[in-house]
């Protein structure tokens, strides 16, 4: 199942496809999210992919059906039922600092992501634990030997953004920036914190993936991404000609560009985990199963989404996106909008008295749950969405939801301490990686696991799914996990499926989405019919 793209965008794109691309000019793109950090391996912001992929590339690219195609590696093969992955590198690739992309450079990237001193706090270390050894039998061959069969690993290894061997000595390695070189069609020239990031064309670039729209250097001379966190500001900047394109268009603002001949508008669902409230099973009131189930059953998400996004967002139900090949619809419509059941569950849990403000209490304590949201991922009117959920929880169930927005340092501290009621978040990783990141039990090394679940029934399902490359079989394991995690244990309340939107002036050509992850593609094949 593929995400829909507006007919207007398709017709405009088709018309432009018949024109001859022009070289030159610079594109200014208004974006919602500032990358923090700029290191492409340590950055966990899905929205930053648009920016970082212009300078940092991977071994393989993907087609719309998820199949792999050559990029920095000209070929690959999988042996020993998936325990051994062999990449053969292109002979002609250089990093922007002049270093050659060879087997040792690639191997060094994989060695670093095994080092907790480098990757602590990210999911890199958790995924790299599957590596048993790394071999470089010759200058163009890299062999990754795994400890056991782990089917999602190919997607991870193929998609790791590679950085130059010279970059490992940079004092700015973790923060990233101009001293951390990649192989991409653009080179990071200047970063102005809180304002913009500027890239210039890499004139030597000639190794685009085989499914790219063209080969050779980029058409544009450069691209500037301006950080404009507010949707209305981005929209105003595009309408007034201050920027050439924007991403992240709110439901209220989409109408400015739909059926407007001066602009194109496209949208596509992301892959990965829906934006969800993950409920902490080890701390506070959400330790109680009936409290978690009461929230899952008592809230009614659909009308909230309709009100906030004007019908421009998709209700989520399960543990992964409906455009993911591993998606199953078994829990769609099976919970929610049942305040009677929600209140009954809370009564049964002993939260059956009320304080002066109408909130439920037990033993003199208010039923209060703190929801943590990282400031870096407050986008797409999520603050408004959480406020609406907060109001509904109070009105329907007598539950107090406290909203707390925190910086990255505090976010990490809270995650590590486990002293929170809920974390709201989404991610876009595919091939079951994101499912495992969120649901792998803490005692088994769960990389994200905001719910902190250690349910013993989960691990066999994840292991079964990762031990085979057969998609229907994996889908079956994840269907069981979905029933267990959402319906039975209520460790997460899915809210909506994130999507990306692109609006651009009509003279901007070649702009669109990555074929598999449904996220905005970088500016490599973008060209301007006037500049």
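^ structure tokens above, recovered residues below v
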């Amino acid at each position: 199942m593929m995400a829909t793209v507006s007919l207007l965008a398709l017709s405009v794109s088709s018309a432009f496809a018949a024109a001859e691309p022009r070289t030159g000019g610079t594109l200014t793109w208004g974006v919602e999210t500032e990358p923090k950090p700029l290191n492409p391996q340590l950055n966990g912001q899905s929205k930053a992919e648009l920016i970082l992929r212009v300078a940092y590339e991977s071994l393989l690219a993907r087609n719309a059906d998820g199949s792999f195609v050559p990029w920095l590696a000209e070929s690959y093969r999988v042996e020993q039922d998936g325990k051994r992955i062999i990449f053969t590198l292109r002979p002609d690739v250089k990093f922007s600092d002049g270093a050659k992309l060879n087997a040792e450079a690639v191997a060094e990237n994989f060695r670093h992501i095994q080092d907790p001193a480098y990757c602590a706090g990210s999911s890199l270390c958790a995924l790299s634990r599957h590596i048993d050894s790394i071999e470089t039998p010759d200058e163009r061959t890299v062999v990754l030997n795994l400890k056991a069969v782990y089917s999602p690993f190919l997607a991870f290894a193929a998609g790791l953004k590679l950085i130059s061997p010279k970059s490992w000595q940079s004092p700015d390695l973790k923060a990233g920036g101009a001293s951390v070189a990649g192989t991409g069609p653009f080179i990071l020239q200047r970063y102005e914190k809180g304002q913009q990031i500027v890239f210039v064309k890499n004139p030597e670039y000639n190794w685009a993936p085989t499914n790219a729209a063209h080969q050779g250097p980029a058409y544009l001379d450069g691209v500037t991404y301006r950080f404009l966190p507010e949707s209305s500001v981005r929209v105003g900047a595009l309408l007034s000609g201050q920027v050439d394109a924007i991403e992240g268009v709110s439901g209220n603002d989409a109408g400015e560009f739909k059926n407007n001949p001066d602009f194109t508008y496209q949208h596509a669902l992301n892959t990965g985990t829906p934006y969800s409230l993950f409920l902490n099973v080890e701390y506070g009131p959400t330790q109680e199963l009936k409290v978690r189930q009461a929230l899952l059953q008592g809230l009614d998400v659909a009308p909230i989404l309709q009100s906030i996004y004007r019908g421009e967002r998709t209700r989520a139900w399960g543990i992964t996106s409906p455009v993911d090949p591993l998606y199953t619809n078994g829990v769609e419509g099976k919970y929610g909008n049942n305040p009677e059941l929600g209140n009954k569950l809370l009564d049964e849990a002993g939260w059956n008295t009320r304080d002066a403000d109408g909130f439920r209490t037990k033993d003199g304590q208010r039923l209060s749950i703190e929801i943590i949201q990282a400031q870096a991922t407050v986008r797409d009117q999520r603050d408004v969405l959480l406020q609406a959920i907060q109001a509904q929880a109070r009105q329907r169930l007598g539950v107090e939801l406290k909203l707390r927005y925190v910086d990255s340092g505090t976010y990490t501290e809270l995650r590590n301490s486990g002293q929170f009621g809920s974390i709201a978040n989404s991610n876009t990783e595919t091939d079951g990686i994101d499912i495992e990141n969120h649901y792998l039990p803490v005692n088994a090394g769960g990389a994200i696991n905001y719910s902190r679940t250690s349910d013993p029934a989960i691990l066999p399902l994840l292991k079964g799914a990762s031990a085979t490359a057969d998609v229907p079989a994996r889908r079956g394991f994840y269907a069981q996990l979905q029933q267990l995690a959402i319906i039975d244990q209520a460790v997460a309340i899915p809210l909506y499926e994130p999507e990306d939107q692109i609006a651009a002036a009509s003279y901007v050509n070649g702009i669109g989405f990555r074929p598999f992850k449904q996220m905005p593609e970088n500016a490599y094949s973008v060209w301007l019919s006037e500049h």
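Residues 181 and 390 are 44 Å apart (CA to CA).
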